[in-house]
Each structure stands twice: as structure tokens, then as C-alpha cells.
Amino acid sequence: MAKPHETKPYTVETLRIIEAIQAVPVGRVSSYRDIAGAAGLPQGARQVARILHALSRSQNLPWHRIIKANGRIALRPGEGQELQIHLLRSEGVAVTDEGTVDMDRYGHIPALSKKRL
């Protein structure tokens, strides 16, 4: 008899990234790079992207608030960019039709809780 599928617990790094993503408030954006830095992984921007891709639904992450450090939405037209623009605008973030956000105005660098996971 086969055992039921068991999921592995998340790594400490994954939990810190999730916490940093959840710390981005409504009406603000953060970059993959800044999320990684807040989680203590200064070279972990790609890891942030992978976690968003894999866990956004199951962890109810505000994926739409995470963009490139240059203020551009990473998703391409026809592959989710329009939805991300719509979600950001619905939260009051000014986004150009090309998918650019003013990071000076809307950027946010999360501060994680003192209690490290």
C-alpha cells in the first residue's frame, strides 16, 4: 500500500521570504531583490521568484506587489502583466500601461520581525 504524499516542511529561508512578501502593504510594491535582502539572502532574487511561482496560491501571497528593482513588472503582456497592472491599480498604485511603477513613490523594503524563523 502506497503512503500518502507527504510535503516537506519549508526551509527557514523560504519562511523568511514568505514573511517578507507578506509584509508588503496594500498600495506599495517591493522588488525581488529587496525581498531577498530582507530575508537575509542578498543574492536570492531568483529564489524569491521561484517561491512566488510555486507558493502564491497556497500561501495566499500578494504576488502582484513584487516587481523588478527597476520598477518594471516582470510578467510579459499576455502572460499576466495585464492582471498585475489591474491588481496594483486597484490598490492605488500608479502603473504605466507598459507596466512601470515609480519605486521612489511606491517602493517598500520590508522589515522582518525580530524573531527570526
Short description:
The chain is mostly helical. Helices cover about 35% and strands about 5% of the residues. The protein has one domain: Winged helix-like DNA-binding domain superfamily/Winged helix DNA-binding domain (Arc Repressor Mutant, subunit A), CATH 1.10.10.10.
Would you write up a description of this structure?
37% of the residues lie in helices and 3% in strands. The mean pLDDT is 92. It is built from 5 helices and 2 strands, in the order αβααβαα. The longest helix is centred in the first third of the chain and has 11 residues, at 12-22. The chain has a single domain (12-105), classed as Arc Repressor Mutant, subunit A, CATH 1.10.10.10. Helix 2 (32-38) crosses helix 3.
How much of the sequence is in beta strands?
A: under 5%
Q: If you average the pLDDT, what whole number results?
A: 92
Q: Describe the strand arrangement of the main beta sheet, using strand numbers.
A: 1-2
* Counted beta strands: 2
- What series of H and E elements makes up the topology? HEHHEHH
- The number of helical runs is 5
How does CATH name the architecture?
Answer: Orthogonal Bundle
Give the helix/strand class: mainly alpha
CATH homology superfamily name: Winged helix-like DNA-binding domain superfamily/Winged helix DNA-binding domain
Integer tally of domains: 1
